[in-house]
Design goal:
Elements (H helix, E strand, L loop, with lengths): L14 H31 L3 H55 L3 H16 L3 E6 L9 E6 L3 H7 L1 H14 L3 E4 L8 E7 L9 E7 L8 H46 L5 H16 L3 H12 L16 H4 L2 H10 L8 H5 L21 H16 L10 H11 L6 H13 L9
Antiparallel strand pairs: 1-2, 1-5, 3-4, 4-5
Helix pairs in contact: 1-2, 2-3, 2-6, 3-6, 7-8, 7-12, 12-13, 13-14
């Protein structure tokens, strides 16, 4: 039966077959030619039978040596293939690790992914990410663990692991250690992981095994170093995203505070609209990323009002410019640019009678339709300078009356159902 080819090798061909062809053409054919020449010209010229036997014996020895060379070549080829397969498995694991780490959004997710990839790459019983002590006299902290033994392996030999990874945490020096029969661990390898930002302490990525005679070598250390380098970059990216998110949240909060002060009687309007919008979005099954964008778009939907002087009564046409003004303000900021269409179109109507562009039906972005309904509801039940306040029940009747004209009918029905179920309540308005 033919053996399966080495599917993971860099070359899919059967290299042992190629080796046989090379051997046949380079050794068997010339040897056969030599034997024919000896049989035709040399043997007849020999004076005695003993000489002839010697000639045939020499040819036989050459044949045996050639056959031995073939098997040695075949064994060497298999060994090379095995190394290629192992290298390619490591490369495949590293590529998978790179993809997973690139997708990690938070530092703890980076640590868990790095530990999991290190365990897969080395076949270790446990892979650990260990951070420096938070206090000067404290012990190193385990922040992530993976592998078949995981936390159990660390608990069983914590004191030894902490001592062994100390040079990694303090000096950034890799450690390769093999234990003796009386040690709690059979082997450990550890490398430094760069800190996500300057001045912050780095961590250590370690793999351990408790079974003898298992050991780690320089190849494992190189593989670990690659994972650690990828993890360091991923942690820095996660830290940058966190800083951007923090900036995003705080600048949004500052704008909302300014908007509340600017709008006076409508203070809190943006937060209430965001609250109802997210409840509608969640009921529609929007994912968390989309819900987050909906939340911030709802908070910022009236940001254009900051450019309108509300101290004096203004014509309705002036107030109607606020979606376009808000769109212009936030579309220039990269962190907010994907929210700009929702701000621009939150006053469009399902039948096309809205503003600023008169879009109709599903041409209006879904998030803008949600915000428009939530804002209209809040305007109905809240004190405002341009509309009379309605009761909760009267506001629901107006939503029902506006389905298919002002509001997306499916959204209006969902809103009314959520109100009937108590998901949207009286205090969701003013």
């Amino acid at each position: 039966m033919d053996r399966a080819p080495h599917a993971l090798s860099l070359f899919a061909q059967r290299l042992d077959r190629a080796a046989f062809v090379v051997y046949f053409l380079g050794a068997v054919v010339p040897l056969g030619g030599l034997a024919a020449a000896v049989q035709g010209w040399v043997v007849p010229a020999l004076p005695s039978g003993a000489a002839r036997v010697g000639a045939f014996g020499g040819l036989g020895c050459l044949a045996l040596l050639s056959l031995a060379a073939f098997f040695a070549l075949r064994r060497m080829t298999s060994s090379v293939l095995a190394r290629l397969d192992a290298d390619n498995r490591r490369l495949e694991t590293l590529l998978a690790a790179s993809r997973k780490l690139a997708d990690a959004r938070f530092e703890d997710e980076v640590n868990r992914t790095a530990a999991s990839c290190a365990a897969d790459l080395t076949g270790a019983a446990a892979a650990l990410v260990i951070a420096p002590a938070e206090k000067e006299d404290g012990a190193p902290r385990l922040v992530a663990a993976a592998g078949p033994d995981g936390m159990d392996a660390y608990r069983a030999a914590r004191a030894l692991v902490d001592v062994l990874v100390a040079p990694v945490l303090e000096q950034g020096a890799p450690v390769l250690w093999t234990g003796g029969p009386s040690d709690a661990l059979a082997a450990l390898a550890a490398v430094p992981v760069a800190a996500p930002r300057a001045g912050a302490p780095g961590a250590a990525l370690a793999v351990v095994t408790a079974k003898t005679p298992a050991r780690f070598d320089a190849g494992h250390l190189r593989s670990l170093s690659t994972v650690a380098a990828l993890a360091g970059v991923a942690a820095a990216n996660a830290d940058l995203r966190d800083a951007q998110r923090n900036f995003f949240v705080h600048v949004t909060e500052l704008l909302i505070l300014a908007l509340d002060a600017h709008q006076g009687e409508q203070s809190g309007h943006a937060r209430r609209v965001a609250h109802v919008s997210v409840r509608l979005g969640r009921a529609l099954g929007l994912d968390e990323s989309r819900l987050e964008r909906l939340h911030f778009a709802a908070l910022l939907h009236d940001v254009g009002m900051l450019k309108i002087d509300t101290r004096q009564p203004q014509p309705r046409t002036v107030y109607r410019t606020h979606p376009a003004l808000g769109h212009r303000m936030i579309s220039r900021i990269r962190l907010w640019e994907d929210l700009a269409p929702f701000v621009l179109h939150h006053h469009e109507c399902w039948d096309g009678s809205g503003y600023p562009e008169g879009l109709a039906g599903e041409d209006i972005p879904l998030e803008a339709r949600i915000i428009g309904l939530a804002e209209a509801f809040d305007a109905m039940v809240s004190p405002a300078s341009y509309k009379a306040q309605r009761s909760f029940e009267a506001a629901l009747e107006e939503v029902r009356a506006g389905r298919g004209t002002q509001f997306d009918p499916a959204l209006a029905d969902l809103f009314l159902r959520l109100a009937a179920e108590g998901v949207i309540e009286r205090h969701d308005g003013a």
